[in-house]
# Entry
Amino acid sequence: MSTNINFNGQVYAVPALGDDGWGTAVSNYLIAIATGTFQRTGGSFTLSGEPDFGNAFGLKALYLKSKAANPSGTGALRLGNTEAVSWRNAANNADLAACEYPFRSNSSGKCCKCSDRS
# Structure
């Protein structure tokens, strides 16, 4: 007797030893696995919601790269020139940005610290 397996919201019947007529069901399940899982080779992988890794583990990556037209080519966080790193304030009524576009230069021509900005 087959076992129903739910994969990405679709139910597949996986046959048991001795079942007959299982070729199409197994083919459909294997195709769903190959097309519905993230591949080690990378590429485009569209999500239908935000992933939640639970409270035991996080995400480890060499770098995170923006989908901006021209993100930075170096660093751990690679953003485009009009993007910012932001977080929510304690009153939960505004976002605060570490630095944002357009950057202002000080007299030495270097980017000002956020505290130097007016």
The longest strand covers residues 3-7. The CA atoms of residues 64 and 77 lie 5 Å apart.
